[in-house]
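User: Here's a protein and a ligand (adenosine-5'-diphosphate). What would the complex look like?
Assistant: Let me lay out the input and then the predicted complex.
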Amino acid sequence: MLRFENVSKVYDDGFQAVKSISFEIQQGEFLVLIGPSGSGKTTTMKMINRMEPHTSGTIYIDGKDNNTYNASELRRSIGYVIQQIGLFPHYTIEKNIAIVPQLKGWNPKEIKARVDELLELVGLNPEVFANRYPKELSGGQQQRIGIARALASNPDIILMDEPFSALDPITRDQLQGELITLHKKLNKTIVFVTHDMDEALKMGDRIAIMKDGKLLQLDTPEKLLHEPAHGFVEEFIGKHRIIQNPELMPVIDIMSETVVTSLPQRSPEKALALIRQRKITNLIVVDEENKLLGIVSAYDVIKQLNDIQTIDEVLLPAEPFLFDSATAKDAIIMMDESPYGMIPVVDERKKVVGLVTRGSLLSAMSSQWTDSEVAE
Ligand SMILES: Nc1ncnc2c1ncn2[C@@H]1O[C@H](COP(=O)(O)OP(=O)(O)O)[C@@H](O)[C@H]1O
Ligand SMILES: [Mg+2]
């Protein structure tokens, strides 16, 4: 979709801002460019839509050299969002969003419908906001308009240069969550510049780390954290970072290690006594070696108390379960499929080592997940 091949940029004053970088971005990918100030992030981004021409190498968009596209068409076909928002103060919100569709010659009815749709998409009521002026909006609302405007003509690629860095932490967190949701929904290719590692880890499918015009490493957040390719990368990430992304949080850190288990030969009366004593709703059934066999629900035991000899007769499959190498994210996804509201965690020999419940999962996540992410 987007490919850099040995791309360099030497500015007119002879300064080399970008030094022979090569990388590829897939359609629908969320790529974060991160690095210290002056490392060449903005320059790299601006070369994509030719706001800054590159001085050597080739940039391919959909397999075509970006120098072969008509420059203004190229700019209009790629969405662009910047920190300073760049809304026109004398234009209403509606007119601000409509700029590119207007340039593209859409008819007024199409434009109006698109503006309303985009305002809804970024969580602003068109009836309230369409006719306001930028200064009548908060910083976060203005940034939402910036995003709506970048999406206006339905571009495949969106470039975002530190779009949230001027916002207060709460608004930033909220917009980050909304952008993640939006990205999943729209499947756009996003190149997102930041200097904030937390933001990068939260947002990026992959993260590219730049320094002094060079691309040091481009990897998934997990790989960056576990296998930093360069001393600088490790330093930049921060060695004692508190990992906030559930994808990076091991399930063994959030599970409960006290699991009430039973052998399958237990009588229903004894099982019921255990269930009552430990105030649980499901019993995890294991063999002599503590290997997971299945689950028995308290409800089934009570219902069939007089009809069964052992709980083995009401044993339900242990699906779903998690291995101890799984992440909190796996648990979150799996919890939706779990009919029991809990998931046993086993080691590689299938011995039960813990249990994740919906409650423990939520309390581990609630401080770290924004509302919009939980709502997905
Ligand atoms: N128009 C320009 N002329 C000369 N040097 C520039 C120009 N724009 C940026 N630079 C220099 O190129 C380097 C990279 O800048 P930039 O891409 O904006 O970095 P970042 O976005 O990572 O902070 C910086 O040292 C900057 O001073
Ligand atoms: Mg910059």
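Summary: Residues 169-186 form the longest helix (18 residues).
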